[in-house]
Amino acid sequence: MRPLPRSFYDRDTVVVARELLGKNLVFTPDGGPRIGRIVETEAYLGPHDLAAHSSKGLTDRTRIMFGPPGHAYVYLIYGMHYCLNVVTEREGHASAVLLRALEPVQNLSGRTCGPGLLCKAMGIDKRLNGHDLLSDDLFVAEPSSPECFRIVARPRIGVDYAGAWAKRRLRFYIRGNAFVSRP
DNA sequence: TCATTGATGGTCT
DNA sequence: GACCATCAATGAG
Description:
mainly beta; 8 strands; DNA-binding; globular; eight-stranded antiparallel sheet; single chain; 3-methyladenine DNA Glycosylase, Chain A
């Protein structure tokens, strides 16, 4: 299993969010790799997207989002949960895709149907903020035997404060998948 | 089954 | 000091 190339991430964020569905997230902190199939994502388009953290501008927290594509953006939310994003598009564009749910494939314990639970099950925390996804220990890979599926597009979760941007259908998930956080 | 709420701390104003 | 890209527990219906 090999990491997807950086060119995969250096594209339109909606395209990346949709194409991440069905791919495998791989994290190998020690011993055997922990693998989950990505079944739910959300696109955050950049500083103009009022739901995106980068709409606050370039700060310590959003620094990674403003960086080059193919890196992990990990942040703490509500004081207790980590969320994992992948940075997309060219450096400075400040867009990313939030990984919201996984279908367990290997070495995962606990629930994975939500961005906080996903990180807990994988063992991902803020130490991985800024981590290159073209690395040996954390990356996304093409599954060995891809399955067919249909994609559902819905408004993003928990961004009601973002006005019209909250209504945009920038949440994507695999139709009928049992591990989607809120079908 | 659905709506409400508490936990808990980093980030921004 | 307010807000928050969440989750689990609670209680009403």
